Amino acid sequence: MKLIIGGSSGFVGTELVRQALTNSAITSIIGVSRRETPIPPGSTDDSGKLKSVVCDNFESYSGSLKKELEDADACIWTIAVTPQNLKSLTWEETCKISRDYAITAIHTLASTPRKQASPLRFVYISGHFAPRKKTEDMKILDEHGMMAYGLLRGEAESLVLEFAEQSNGKVEAQVAKSGIIATPDRVLPNIPGLPKIELTDIAAALLDQVVNGFEKDTLYSDDMTRIGQKVLGALDGGAATTPTVEEAEAGEVQ
Question: Which InterPro entries does the protein's record reference (predicted)?
Fold first, then answer.
């Protein structure tokens, strides 16, 4: 399997790379980021499975980047603006990074040459409070001044899923509605109704989904925890190593 990881130098992207390097079903990893994607601390890549590709413009891909995307089997897209970074960006920038970059990615991948007859699998990592329609979640978003942001993420989810539905079988899409992502030394805020998921679990779950097929088009934190723990429990008797925040290197805006 050839896997594309969008945002491969970031917090979730780094853990995806770490686990993908040891996954025998994944033979090629293309890490796409605004900077070089390093081998994660404690990992090795003796077979040269990982290729780092720096992208300067996520709205218009260069010919060389498109070439690297050819014959991809799957893509996990981690790039978006996190709530804590909203104040450092304009709303226009937030919309581009959180919605438009993902839509450009799925459109580009769908039009890139592939030898495989099977559909390309595309995973968009979103947030727990990202409504696609009016729900009780909107009350929580409103209370925290996050209504526009939540609706933006929900819109991105809808656009990704709708594109796949209209692709005539060329693309399958899945939305991963993650709660707050935890590592052993990460201090987490207490937000009522927001679930927690371990970094290792979400990475293991999403890699399982792109390799073995989508369980359904939308996964929540409890789904990913269940899948991820099952996968990790089958490896080394469950002796999975959880990286620290420093090891995960939260560099990519996501």
Answer: NAD(P)-bd_dom_sf
Give bridge partners of residue 50 from the DSSP assignment. 29
d(CA 177, CA 185): 23
Q: What is the pLDDT of residues 48-60, one digit of tens each?
A: 999 999 999 999 9
Give dist(CA 119, CA 109) in Å, integer: 11
Give dist(CA 221, CA 207) in Å, integer: 15
Q: What is the pTM of this model?
A: 0.90
Indicate the helix (H) or strand (E) that contains 83.
none
State how far the Cα of 99 lies from the Cα of 80, in Å rounded to an integer: 7
Q: Pick the closest to residue 176 from 219, 211, 235 (CA basis).
A: 219
Q: What is the DSSP letter of 193?
A: T
Residue 236 structure tokens:
């080394």
Q: How confident is the model at residue 131 (pLDDT cuts 50, 70, 90)?
A: confident
Domains and CATH numbers, the chain: 2-248 (3.40.50.720)
The token pair that represents 21 in the structure block: 């390097």
**How large is the average pLDDT for residues 196-221?**
97
Q: Is 33 helix (H, G, I), strand (E, B) or coil?
A: strand
Q: What are phi and psi of 222, to 5 degrees?
A: -65, -35
78 token code pair: 């981690």
